[in-house]
Design brief:
This protein has 923 residues and is mostly beta strands. Helix content is 13%, strand content 33%. It is built from eleven helices and 49 strands. Helix 4 packs across helix 5 and helix 6 packs parallel to helix 7. The N terminus is likely disordered.
């Protein structure tokens, strides 16, 4: 646009021109302050995605790998990964160290997280690995695999089948173990020569060691931690740089599928020499009400220059919109502060303000997850040196021993699930949309809380829970000094527990969704009396030095109420003990854990502490599989002929069976209702996960989820929904009604409903009404004789019609129904569409017993990322474009290729069936 477009010619006066320019700048400032003002300031630091352009190589056999090892490990001659999950942990095995390990050069990476300066590590002289070809820029890696992060090297398979596999069922029968290298070349501008250059790794599995331009920079052994390396001493500004990362993922190192590789995001961060330190800003809120809230801010600054400096620090508060973007002008500002920082040193500032009429963060569905951000700006001699954004929420949190957890004054019963970190067919490689889909499905069931089991989550998961209003209990370790598997975290606990724990808390403490810190899960130190309690107190002290606003706990499956271990914790966190462990007569005389129902004992011994159940149920089922006879028991273990079938490795979906140390959902609900002082439960578990396929370790994935590995809802989903969403009209019938082999035989029908009464009809004939009694959570029609046709359930609440559902005997399979969870996705190569295919009859009904092999194809602008069907016994590799349906369903995960547009056409076909299609738009 020319000046004359505003009615001004170049011949007008200079004064008029100046006035116009000021006017235009004012307009731009007003319009741009939605985000432009803060976004411009944020350009003072750069955080660049470093996910593209990597080359990957994995040794075919770890025994043939290079000798650049972090440390020696015990020899594992044999390991039985089918042992029960509550087996007693055992002592570590002593090993003799050798001189040529790289551990001394890696340990200094964690120095920022060691509080006692005397315990920090000094880097030895020398540069191990400098001459190894893979770290050299001249090495030709063109034959290596080109990959984009996040990357899980194990998920593509193939699965290990049969007896005595290299990787057993406990770790998912996938090749996640081994030694591998990642290489990436990149260039920096001359303008970066005086800047600090950092590499931020959100997660790498495991024993990561990093070389830049032939120099060993550092690393981090724990595969679930996020960590930073300072590349500045080794960077070549104005030239090419070569990055090389070595990973070593041991076998027998996990009780579930850990994944392998750099499986979370990696970032290159550029700052000026004076900047906000890594995870250096923390916001806490006090005296919170709808009328006002006190906001406290602490910021740690780092001066990496060789001169003393004086800087001015400003902190402005913005609202965030629902997508996490800055919303409008700053709403309030902290008073500016001037601070002097010595050369190569840190300094801290602290500020406090009171915000009137704050918009509180709270869990849905009863509250709204409002969020804010502080933009911290560091100025030196009037020049902006750094800008750092800290997102936070304003909320109050109170733990009441007699009732539970209160958020913003409202009692929030914890309706929680445990979630492992894998994303099913995608493996451990984190994807925002896949995680969001899981949370959406869980929220539909009534979940309001997630326990991340048993390790730090991906940072983006907490961004999702913040935005979606879901509470989180954040967990650090599955083992301490005592081991559960031969090569698990116990090998590095002594050296790294402080660094890992402080890193977790510093990274996650500003997330309003995080309400508790878990420092351990069923650790062996429960068995060591005061010795174990001492370690618990030490870990708790570390956490509270970083964050004193949340309680600290650890999950106990063995420690009893009168022992020192629970006394060392802020919250009593029980795994399975509340309902009792192995109390059936058949377990008498066994050496396994046997514990009577324990909520009253813990409440009596610790009346000042909140009690919650961090793991409940561990119930089993295979979606759509129903086995007979149906047990009369309230809760029963799985055996052949009693809910299980070892010939097909499946468990009945009547949802009455659990692991030996667990309970059915019905039993857990009863004990929760009997003891209202219990704050809530975390069901084991939300989604099926890779590994730990109890009771059939010849399988690939668990049976304990309410949702299968593909994301299809099991019957148990609806049982929890009926309890957790009492105001949502729903009724669910099981089993399916295709039983030609059961004609004339008793075939029980069970009903889950949020109503209080149900009338059941078979082919229009009433089978009677049944009403829920006390501690009754399903309605059982156990004497129904099978005849094909229509089953209908009509639910009532307070005498009025509430909901109804119909199940029919289907015809033969004739076609495929195709439906995506979303019909518009981004064309960024990361967004995903989850496409469900149902095998249907002529009337469009899903044929519940169908196992037709379905093949997928997509248009040229898209890719099939993976397929799945939710069958724990299925060993078809996940990247396959064809797969058998399981109980009538199969899933394909689709993404758009980068920089593509238009429509994605997804086609599903199967021999003898009419093909189906779905159209997905690329945004």
């Amino acid at each position: 646009m020319t000046l004359s477009g505003y009615g001004m010619t170049p011949r007008r006066s200079g004064l008029a021109l100046l006035i116009l320019l000021v006017f235009l700048m004012t307009l731009a400032g007003c319009a741009g302050n939605d985000e432009a003002d803060a976004a411009t300031d944020l350009a003072a630091r750069e955080r660049i995605s470093f996910n593209e352009g990597w080359r990957f190589y994995k040794y075919a056999d770890s025994k043939q790998a290079d000798g650049l090892i972090y440390d020696v490990r015990p020899e594992v001659e044999s390991f039985n990964d089918t042992k029960e999950a509550d087996s007693k942990p055992t002592d570590a095995v002593e090993v003799n160290a050798i001189a040529n390990v790289l551990k001394p050069w890696i340990m200094p990476t964690g120095n920022d997280f060691i509080i006692d300066p005397a315990k920090r590590h000094v880097r030895p002289p020398g540069n191990p690995g400098a001459k190894f070809p893979f770290v050299q820029a001249s090495f030709d890696d063109s034959e290596w695999e080109a990959i984009t992060l996040p990357h899980d090297w194990g998920i593509k398979g193939p699965f290990f089948e049969g007896d005595d596999p290299e990787v057993g069922g406990g770790m998912g029968r996938l090749p996640s173990d081994g030694v591998a290298w990642y290489r990436k070349s990149f260039s920096l501008s001359e303008d970066d020569k005086d800047k600090q250059i950092y590499l931020d790794v959100d997660g790498a599995m495991s024993y990561a060691m990093v070389w830049l331009n032939g120099h060993l920079v550092g690393g981090w052994p724990y595969g679930y931690s996020s960590w930073r390396l300072d590349l500045t001493p080794y960077i070549r500004a104005g030239g090419d740089n070569q990055l090389a990362i070595r990973l070593d993922n041991p076998p027998s190192s996990s009780r579930w599928y850990p994944g392998g590789g750099i499986y979370r995001n990696v970032w290159l961060v550029k700052t000026e020499q004076v900047h906000v330190k890594h995870w250096g800003s923390v916001v806490t809120t006090e005296n919170v009400s709808n009328g006002s809230a006190d906001i406290k801010l602490a910021v740690k600054l780092q001066n990496s220059s060789s001169a003393n400096v004086q800087v001015k620090v400003t902190n402005d508060v913005y609202e965030l919109n629902e997508t996490g973007k800055l919303n409008g002008h700053q709403i309030i500002s902290f008073a500016p502060q001037t601070v002097s920082i010595s050369k190569n040193a840190d300094a801290s500032i602290a500020s406090q303000i009171t915000l009137k009429q704050p918009k509180l963060w709270g869990p849905r569905p009863t509250q709204t997850p409002n969020r804010y951000a502080v933009i911290t700006k560091v100025w030196q001699n009037g020049e902006l040196k750094d800008s750092y954004q800290t997102n936070f929420g304003i909320r109050s949190l109170r733990f009441d021993p007699s009732s539970g957890v209160h958020v913003n004054g409202e009692l929030i019963p914890l309706q929680g699930v445990n979630q492992h970190h894998d994303l099913g067919a995608l493996g451990a490689a984190f994807n925002v949309r896949a995680a969001e889909r899981q949370l959406e499905i869980l929220r539909d069931m009534g979940v309001n809380t997630i326990r991340v089991a048993h390790n730090p989550p991906a940072p983006e998961l907490l961004e999702l829970t913040d935005r979606m209003g879901i509470l989180v209990t954040d967990e650090s370790f599955d083992s301490w000094y005592k081991k559960k598997t031969p090569l698990d975290f116990h090998l590095i606990f002594e050296d790294w527990h402080e660094q890992d724990l402080r890193a977790l808390v510093r990274r996650d403490r500003n997330h309003p969704s995080v309400i508790m810190w878990f420092i351990g899960n069923e650790v062996g130190e429960q068995y060591t009396d005061e010795e174990g309690a001492k370690i618990a107190r030490e870990l708790s002290r570390i956490v509270k030095e970083e964050d004193s606003t949340r309680p600290v706990t650890a999950s106990m499956n063995w420690a009893k109420a009168d022992m020192p271990f629970p006394a060392a914790l802020d919250v009593i966190s029980l795994n399975y003990q509340g309902e009792g462990i192995r109390q059936l007569p058949e377990f008498e005389g066994t050496e396994r854990i046997r514990t009577p129902p324990s909520y009253p004992a813990f409440h009596k011994a610790h009346p000042d502490k909140v009690i919650l159940s961090s793991e409940t149920a561990s119930a089993f089922s295979s979606r759509g599989i129903y086995l007979f006879p149906v047990t009369d028991e309230f809760s029963a273990p799985v055996r052949d002929g009693r809910g299980g079938d070892s010939s097909i490795h499946q468990v009945s979906s009547y949802e009455l069976h659990a692991v030996d140390f667990g309970s059915s959902a019905d039993k857990v609900f009863k004990y929760m209702d009997m003891y209202p002082f219990v704050a809530g439960q975390f069901v084991w578990n939300g989604f099926d996960y890779l590994g730990e396929p109890t009771p059939y370790y010849s399988a690939r994935s668990s049976y304990s989820g309410m949702i299968d590995l593909a994301g299809f809802k099991k019957d148990r989903f609806y049982l929890y929904q009926s309890k957790w969403r009492p105001n949502f009209p729903m009724v669910h019938i099981l089993p399916h009604w295709n039983w030609p082999e059961r004609l004339g035989k008793v075939t029980p029908i069970h009903i889950f409903t949020s109503g209080d009464e149900v009338e059941l009809f078979i082919n229009g004939k009433s089978q009677g009404k049944k009403k829920k009694g006390q501690y009754e959570y399903r309605l059982r029609f156990d004497n129904v004789v099978y005849e094909p046709g229509t089953v209908k359930a009509v639910a009532y609440k307070a005498g009025k019609p509430w909901a109804q559902e119909t199940v029919v005997t289907t015809g033969a399979a004739t076609g495929l129904s195709v439906e995506a969870d979303r019909t518009k996705i981004a064309g960024d190569g990361e967004d995903l569409a989850f496409v469900t295919v149902k095998v249907t009859d002529n009337n469009g009904n899903t044929v519940p017993t169908a196992r037709n092999k379905v093949s997928f194809s997509v248009s040229d602008n898209a890719e099939i990322v993976a397929t799945d069907n939710g069958d724990s016994t299925n060993f078809t590799p996940f990247p396959s474009s064809s797969r058998e349906a399981f109980s009538g369903k199969v899933l394909a995960i689709i993404k758009a290729k980068k920089r593509q547009s238009g429509e994605i056409i997804v086609t599903a076909s199967a021999e003898g069936l009419t093909a189906g299609t779905e159209v997905i738009q690329i945004r």
